[in-house]
Design a protein that fits this description.
The complex is a heterodimer of chains A (181) and B (90). Chain A contains 3 helices and 11 strands. Chain A is α+β, with helices and mostly antiparallel strands and 181 residues long. Chain A is globular and about 55 Å long. Classes of the chains: A alpha+beta (181), B alpha+beta (90). Chain A: This is Sarcosine oxidase subunit gamma.
């Protein structure tokens, strides 16, 4: 059997920086979509708490415990990041491995919000999108998930096949913001 | 135009796909007859004023919504989950 070398989605593309913004690739570890079976939403929240010390996230919210994060990830499902799910969760929800499916990058810096404002219609103001808020939205015409992980830091996810487009559009927006300082 | 997604809050219309009039939620019975099915499949009003449409939040949470809006003023009155409108059927 051939020896295959694992490559990250943004290998050779990141890191980049321009102006006061830096983009780095994030290795999220295991990622699993968790979609509760009909009528199992409440028991799933309890099972998540027992298995990983995290309840189910409310829409637009994330919960963090150590290196494990669970994101609200759309209508009636969530994404568990940083740990493989305990098998007990399968009694309450459909579990789908997403570990190789997404490119994850972190955009950070004093002008990071100005860069994102060029790429997404999402309202990124502090009062609306605080630290640990998350959203499914559009990013340069791509389906994306955006999570605020710090005062000046956002993590962005797009489908792995679109990693090059993501980096290209981020780079253009960063240079545009930097040129207009 | 912004659409108030019941899950995500106010979002730009570019996150949504228009999926036709909400009357498609009221599927006729299988034996309702050719007239009823022809009407359901092909005939649509073209209202100047209030209407109810299906919108799919494809670049957002993925939910289907029933949106009430006015085709003349472009005012959006509100939105609810299609699942709640149908009570889970269909």
């Amino acid at each position: 059997m051939a020896e295959l070398t694992a490559k990250t989605p943004c290998a050779g593309l990141l890191p980049i920086s321009a102006g006061r913004v830096t983009v780095t690739e994030v290795d999220p570890g295991p990622m699993t979509a968790i979609a509760p079976f009909k009528g199992k939403e409440k028991t799933l929240a309890g099972a998540l708490d027992r298995a990983h010390g995290l309840g189910g996230p409310a829409p637009g919210q994330t919960r963090v415990k150590g290196h494990v994060r669970i994101l609200w990830f759309g209508h009636a499902h969530a994404l568990l990041v940083g740990v493989a799910p305990k098998p007990t969760l399968a009694r309450h929800a459909a579990l789908t491995d997403q570990g190789d499916a997404w490119a994850v990058v972190q955009v950070e810096g004093a002008e990071a919000r100005d860069v994102l404002a060029r790429l997404t219609p999402l309202d990124l103001r502090d009062a609306v999108f605080a630290v640990d808020a998350t959203a499914r939205t559009e990013l340069a015409h791509m389906q994306a998930a955006i999570t605020r992980v710090g005062a000046q830091a956002w993590q962005m996810m797009v489908f792995r096949s679109m990693a090059t487009t993501l980096v290209h559009d981020l780079d253009a927006a960063m240079r545009g913001v930097a040129a207009r300082r | 135009m912004r659409i108030p997604c019941p899950i995500c809050g106010n979002r730009d219309s570019r996150e949504f796909d228009y999926m036709g009039h909400a009357l498609t939620l009221d599927r006729p019975a299988p034996d309702a007859g050719l007239g009823a099915w022809d009407d359901y499949l092909h005939n649509r009003e073209n209202p100047a004023g209030p209407t109810r449409d299906l919108w799919f939040h494809g670049l957002g949470c993925g939910a289907w919504l029933v949106v009430s809006r006015d085709t003349v003023t472009h005012e959006v009155f509100g939105a609810e989950l299609a699942r709640d409108v149908t009570g889970g059927r269909a």
